Amino acid sequence: MLGRRNFLEMWEDEAFDYEFSAGRLFMRKVFVCNSPDAVQFAFSLKNASFERKSAQMRYALQPLIGDGLFISDGDTWRKRRRIVAPIVHVSRLSEFAPVMVETAVEARDRWARLQPPSVDVLAEMAHLTAEIICRTIFGRQLGREHAHEIVDGFSDYQRVINQFDLVSLLGLPDWLPRWYGPAVRRSVTRIHAVLDGIIESYRSRERADEVSVIGRLLDARDVDTGEPLNPEAVRNEAAVLFMAGHETTANTLAWTWYLVSQAPEVEARLHAELDSVLGGRLPTVTDLPHLSYTRAVLEETLRLYPPVPILPREALQDETYQGTRIPKGSLVLVVPWLLHRHRKLWDKPDHFIPDRFMPGNPGAPSKFAYVPFSIGPRICAGMSFGQQEAILCLATLAQSFRLRLEAGREIKPVCRLTLRPEGGLQMRIEPREARELHEPRAAAAQDGLRTGCPLGHG
Ligand code: HEM
User: Fold this and answer.
1) Which percentage of the chain shows pLDDT scores above 90?
2) Strand-pair category, 118-120 with 426-431
3) Which of 364, 71, 448 lies closest to 239 in space, CA to CA?
4) pLDDT per residue over 315-345, tens digit each?
5) Residue of 87, 248, 295 best suited for mutating to test ligand 1, as the one with most atoms within 8 Å of CB
6) 434, CA 20 to 30 Å: which among 72, 97, 222, 240?
7) Residues 303, 311: Cα–Cα separation, whole Å
8) Residue 381, ligand 1, Cβ within 6 A
């Protein structure tokens, strides 16, 4: 079925123009909120009515993450959010930054030795961000030791769960029994065993000096009862952070390398900023406020290729939007893929123009028109972590290399659980001259690369 192959192909050309639409998917009513006002209505003003993730998303992830933050709602979500969000909060970032840079340096050194100098950038970024999140969650040593097992386990799970026709499931009523096959159960047993083993080794070692998420989850107390989290909850939240926190950042970085390689003026300005701010040394958190163009490049990439291109919710009660009744049980979608390229909201919606996000420029037309991290109470808990990680990794690697697409390759986005380049992103690595300063060609950069809508829209 079409949607199973690629969720992006479901949208007709007009979808980049309309503001709110009502339709039907099998037995379920579906509403698409495609204007800042409609997004604010669903995700902010009426969050209580739409806080539940779609049945399809809960179905796909429940065996793996149980009652974890990402798919829970109601009281469980509120309690977990109060525990998990502060652990990866912006105020903690200076603790995590050294792990991010140190892991990016390992990638840099590996790239420098590669023969031939060619990589699948998507796989490389996935490896890099998985290493970072593993070391952050489990501490440097345990993270290093177990990153491979964890990555393999999660990839296997994604492969088996992808074999379901998720779009059909979106439309089925909740009372219909859903059945997980033996492949899903085997995959889950394997990941849980790995995670339980790591948590056990963590408990048995004395590592008070090390910053790790797992230590903080183990120390956390329920705000009402004062009880610690039960072992299953600790495992579920560790799994959520791994799952939510690596592929999204990896895809952002991969799309950035692709876009920058296609836009010489942007590449030159990026290099110029890195050279003048860092002068060849490694980045630290104190450099972040000065890397505004690097940040703008990433923000523009997140606009054109939002790693989570569809945010599906289920209506928990009847609501009405601008006279249209949204019955309880309906599927309500915010689709960053459409919203971020909306023709009435953005100037040159398909062009890659990082300048729009530079200080002093208008940026997004509304905070409800630009939602790569979602918005409202369920906004990504790791937003600052992900932004900082992407800046530090890009700054570390782009100081040393430029990447070039292999000749004749055409890049097409495909969406399974996240939006990524179909078939990976094979690129050639070219070393840069150290501290070579580039003069930006500002006039050309204004207009930007036109990415086109690779699915033929627009
Ligand atoms: C560029 C990187 C990232 C992007 C684009 C991103 C995007 C998102 C989006 C769109 C959601 C909401 C999903 C939905 O409503 O269906 C979300 C939720 C979440 N993300 Fe991220 N994310 C990124 C990085 C991270 C990182 C690094 C972490 C952890 C360290 C993280 C942890 C979470 C968690 C825990 C949630 C669930 C929040 C809740 O339901 O209360 N994310 N993310």
Assistant:
1) 66
2) antiparallel
3) 71
4) 999 999 999 999 999 999 999 999 999 999 9
5) 248
6) 97
7) 15
8) yes
- In this predicted structure, the answer to whether residue 298 has a pLDDT above a threshold of 80 is yes
Residue 213 identity (one-letter amino acid) = V
Is there an atom of ligand 1 within 6 Å of 42 CB? no
Least reliable range by pLDDT among 145-154, 237-246, 262-271: 145-154
pLDDT in tens, 190-220: 899 989 998 888 888 766 567 789 989 999 9
- What gap in Å lies between CA 70 and CA 19, rounded to an integer? 27
Tell how far the Cα of 363 is from the centroid of ligand 1, in angstroms.
21
- 78: in domain: yes
With a 6 A CB cut-off, is 308 part of the ligand 1 pocket? Answer: yes
pLDDT surpassing 70 at residue 176: no
Tokens representing 62 are 């429940």
412: three-class secondary structure by DSSP: coil
pLDDT-derived band at 440, boundaries 50, 70, 90: very low
Rg (CA), the chain: 22
Residue 255 lies in a domain: yes
Reply yes or no on whether the pLDDT at 350 is more than 80. Answer: yes
Number of structural domains in the chain: 1
What's the pLDDT score for residue 161? 79
Q: Judge contact between 342 and 349, C-beta under 8 A.
A: yes
Q: In which domain, by residue range, is 142 found?
A: 73-309+343-450
* Mean pLDDT, range 302-325, rounded to an integer: 96
Which CATH number covers residue 231? 1.10.630.10
Burial category of 432 from C-beta neighbours within 10 Å (exposed 0-12, middle 13-18, buried 19 and up): middle
The length of the chain in residues reads 458
369 within domain boundaries: yes
Residue closest to 315 by CA, chosen among 105, 55, 23: 55
Tell me how far apart the alpha carbons of residues 228 and 403 are, in angstroms, rounded to a whole number. Answer: 47
Q: Say what the pLDDT of residue 3 is.
A: 41
Task: Work out whether the CA dihedral 190, 195, 199, 201 comes out positive or negative.
Answer: positive
d(CA 235, CA 233) in angstroms, rounded, equals 5
Q: Is residue 37 part of a domain?
A: no
Is-contact 270 398, C-beta < 8 A?
yes
Distance between Cα 114 and ligand 1 center (Å): 33
Residue 148: the pLDDT is: 86
